[in-house]
Design brief:
The protein is α/β, with parallel strands linked by helices. It has 9 helices and 7 strands, in the order E-H-E-H-E-H-E-H-E-H-H-E-H-H-H-E. It has one domain: NAD(P)-binding Rossmann-like Domain (Rossmann fold, 3-Layer(aba) Sandwich), CATH 3.40.50.720. Helix content is 48%, strand content 15%. Helix 1 links the parallel strand 1 and strand 2. Helix 1 crosses helix 9, helix 3 runs parallel beside helix 4 and helix 4 packs parallel to helix 6. The two termini are 27 Å apart.
Length: 252
């Protein structure tokens, strides 16, 4: 029912976790795919190859989303090689924390630069293309931490809360150009980023205990809502934060 044939989707942080699952799911829906990565070229190439096996065009592009010039070059390459940019999935992020009285400035700055400034950089250049097309779909990946806060991860919560506010602001700003801007806010997800925390004795069970569905989400269960928001089924959804947390945080 979801058909994205002829579309081009750029997924940041696309080499693993939610980003990799979304890249494959976009390809299965018929979209050409740009798999952004920072360090793991081999893994990104594998994701792109898997996308191509679905019969679409797919390329892996290295860029640090925190660096404005690298994002500009990535989006210019996307348009040059694939012809357009219809969907931006701003997914790249890090999760590092500390008590506020122990957190150093470098940890704070790195988190804000990647998680928040990185989204600004991507939206800044993507909007230029999408406004000319009079069409676009921007989906940011935020977090329950940005909705309710998270002890010992105030930097992460602040960055994701900022992205939620940016999402709503851009929805109002870009809507008149045929561009919708929405967010998917996962809770616990079984990814590389959470593997250390969930791998500690008893932590997975503790996380599952606060989720009414009784388990941690898979990457695919977060990728599905992302693809939905990029589809025609979501044409009149704009400025929404779609919670994907199994009911652990019940906020509108």
């Amino acid at each position: 029912m979801i058909d994205l044939t002829g579309k081009v989707a750029l997924i940041t942080g696309g080499s693993r976790g939610i980003g990799a699952a979304a890249s494959i799911m976009f390809a299965e829906a018929g979209s050409d795919v740009v798999v952004n990565y920072l360090q793991n070229e081999k893994q990104a190439a594998q994701v792109a190859a898997e996308a191509r096996s679905r019969g679409v065009r797919a390329i892996a592009v290295q860029a640090d989303v925190a660096r404005n010039g690298e994002v500009r070059d990535m989006i210019e390459r996307t348009v040059r090689e694939l012809g357009r940019l219809d969907v931006l999935v701003a997914n790249a992020g890090i999760w590092k924390g500390a008590a506020i009285d122990e957190m150093d400035e470098a940890t704070w700055a790195e988190t804000i630069n990647i998680n928040l400034t990185g989204v600004y950089n991507c939206c800044h250049f993507a909007a230029r293309i999408m406004k000319k097309q009079r069409y676009g779909r921007i989906i940011t990946v935020t977090s329950t931490a940005g909705q309710r806060g998270e002890a010992f991860y105030s930097n992460y919560a602040a960055s994701k809360g900022g992205v939620i506010s940016m999402t709503k602001s851009l929805a109002a700003e870009l809507g008149p150009y045929g561009i919708t801007v929405n967010s998917v806010a996962p809770g616990w997800v079984d990814t590389d980023m959470s593997s250390e925390a969930l791998g500690r004795p008893g932590e997975r069970e503790k996380a599952a205990a606060i989720i009414p569905l009784g388990r941690v989400a898979t990457s695919e269960e977060c990728a599905g809502p992302i693809v939905f928001l990029a589809s025609d089924l979501a044409n009149h959804i704009n400025g929404e934060v779609l919670n994907v947390n199994g009911g652990s945080v019940l906020c509108g």
